Amino acid sequence: IAARPPITLLVHNAGINAVGPFAAVDPARPQAVIDVNLRAPVMLPRRLLPRMAAHGRIVFVSSLAAVMPTPDYAVYSATKAALDSFAANLRLELQAQRRPVHVQVIHPGATRTEMHAKSGMPARQSRTGFADPDAVAAAIQRAVARGRRQQTIGAANRLAYHGVRLSGTSVDRLLVRRARRASDRHGQAHDTPRDHALITGAADGIGRALALAFARAGADVIVHGRRANAAEQVAAQIRRLGRRAAVVLADVARPAEIDRLVDEAWQAFGRVDVWVNNAGADILTGGALHQPFADRLQVLL
Questions:
Q1: Which helix (H) or strand (E) holds 150?
Q2: At the fourth CATH level, which superfamily is domain 196-300?
Q3: Domain 7-183, what fold?
Q4: Could you tell me the residue ranges of all domains in the chain?
Q5: How would you classify residue 4: left for phi > 0, otherwise alpha for psi between -120 and 50, otherwise beta?
Q6: Taking the alpha carbons of 133, 139, 141, 143 in that order, is the dihedral positive or negative?
Q7: What is the per-residue pLDDT across 277-286, written as a single tens digit (0 to 9) for each?
Q8: Nearest CA to 160 among 75, 65, 254, 95?
Q9: Nearest of 294, 286, 201 to residue 252 by alpha carbon
Q10: Could you report the per-residue pLDDT of 54-95, keeping only the tens digit for each?
Q11: Cα 166 to the center of its chain, rounded Å
């Protein structure tokens, strides 16, 4: 690899979307959006950084959706926000290491491309008010040449970018009202049962404390963990409090295991009123450091 010519410019522009209410989109689509929009831009720099030329440049084409509330684009917006954060932290790491590789983030607005039609957006909507792709591409080229750390394409988009950052939750409330008018559906407040709780990552730490707190409040608890002994100890504590407890062992980093967790959770007590997704992992210390980076990343994604 070292004998090959170095890379002077690495641009991450590939992206896909899933349009519609989150609960209604194809179940396989969110993972695909995460893989293309976030996993690939995270993994490629790790593979290619050793081949980057001095004073080379890494450009992440993000989106205005990274900072704006965008109902019906929940997963897409999340991947772009995460990409912004990754780029900012990668930039700081490279600066701290005195590596002369520049990291840029570019935010175009809605652009008239086939991505929207492929994601389920009506063709008429994607043609109305969306920017011409050739003009956006030219603007991105100019932004790369200028070399600013962050650049938003288009005057209206720059105004929206700064307006959203300054407006707090005002834009959120406006979008909620508009969505309710469009759908003519209004939610009504009601009391929700909390008698059966599932806590992921409940074998220790915060998850264990949450499981015991729900039990003290009168709930039966499903204890999720990866280590049987630790999970059974928490379940025993819950039973001593006079509540029912069930243990489900699963690796939530694996999609198939999530499906099994859901099935076994409902089988335990016939219902789950509260689901607390507390599972997490430290990918920086201990035994995790000996795992392939892609496997450690999967835990977080």
A1: strand 150-152
A2: NAD(P)-binding Rossmann-like Domain (3.40.50.720)
A3: Rossmann fold (3.40.50)
A4: 7-183, 196-300
A5: beta
A6: negative
A7: 887 655 444 4
A8: 65
A9: 201
A10: 888 899 988 888 887 777 888 999 999 999 999 999 999 999
A11: 23
